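Below is how a single chain appears once it has passed through the pipeline. First comes the sequence as given, then the structure the pipeline wrote out for it. We keep one example in the README because the format questions we get most often are answered faster by looking than by reading.
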Amino acid sequence: QVQLVESGGGLVQPGASLTVSCVASGRTRNTYAMAWFRQAPGKEREFVAVVNIFGGTTYSESVQGRFTVSRDDAKNSVYLQMTSLKPEDTAVYYCAAGNPSFRATDYSIWGQGTQVTVSS
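Resulting structure:
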């Protein structure tokens, strides 16, 4: 069973950049789409971005043009580069592996999450 571990969260100021990472304990190449979701206090978990097994990417409208998702299958890793961060980006960011989708229910493997806080 693949396990996912996120890292790289932290406290940053509005307008700053931050990259969060996710490492899989097992092979994800040619097997899983890798996605990022986020959940703010009192809100539902929402889709952020996904990269499929061919490297194709899709983003939510709220992050399009500011965030970049990428995968390095040699390292069993996926990354989320975040730029021009806004206070509304504050959330716990989760890495997930599964079928490419906007729906959290289509992902069977989840990490524990990493907190990203954007505040001055």
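Residues 30 and 53 are 5 Å apart (CA to CA).

See the next section for the split statistics.
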